[in-house]
UniProtKB/TrEMBL annotation:
It is an enzyme of class 6 (ligase). One of its GO terms (molecular function) is tRNA binding. NCBIfam families: YtpR. Residues 90-201 form the TRNA-binding domain. It comes from the Bacteria. Keywords: Ligase, RNA-binding, tRNA-binding. It comes from Streptococcus massiliensis. InterPro entries: DUF4479, NA-bd_OB-fold, tRNA-bd_dom, tRNA_bind_bactPheRS, YtpR-like_sf. The lineage of its organism: Bacteria, Bacillati, Bacillota, Bacilli, Lactobacillales. Its EC number is 6.1.1.20. This is tRNA-binding domain-containing protein. PROSITE patterns: TRBD.
Amino acid sequence: MIFTYNKEFVGDVLMVIVADSGAAKLAAERKGNVARIYRLDNAETVAWNIFEVSNWLEIEGRGQVMLTDEQVASLNQALAQAGFSEKLVNDTEPKFVVGEIVEMKAHPDSDHLNICQVKVAADKVLQIVAGAPNARVGLKTIVALPGAMMPKGNLIFPGELRGEKSFGMMCSPRELQLPNAPQKRGIIELSAAATVGTPFDADKHWGK
């Protein structure tokens, strides 16, 4: 689940993205200050727009924001009062973490992509398809997990690249908009001492 807010340019509207809409056609159902966006083919809810959200909670930050369980409970009150029965389930897990490539093989249908097994927690390994020229087994980097929003607004959801499933993205310094990022292709390379699963901290993991 992705919460995004930009009062200066969008207004006092909290956008809540709960699923990848893919290429499906969408429709909206609005009740009061709450709008549900859903797929026309199966009626699945993919997002909510909550207008005048400051009436319910105070939001700090711009772009992707993290909310507390108490704030999400307030949003669920807003949905219920508007007449919707669905509820939001908060996800407080970090979305940018230190990962380590533990296995890698060439993509069978590409001359530049690799299928990587990336450890993102002590007990969790994700398959990520990547084209970074510096990807290699043992490399530690920053991984954007499903549910992440990149600095430019791109959303990270599970997907496929040329028929191979991919569950995140290994990030370059440019994609993370880090200061003094090199203007060349390649994912960020962290110290071997970096701890897998640690939330991304620009000062700690970049500091240039």
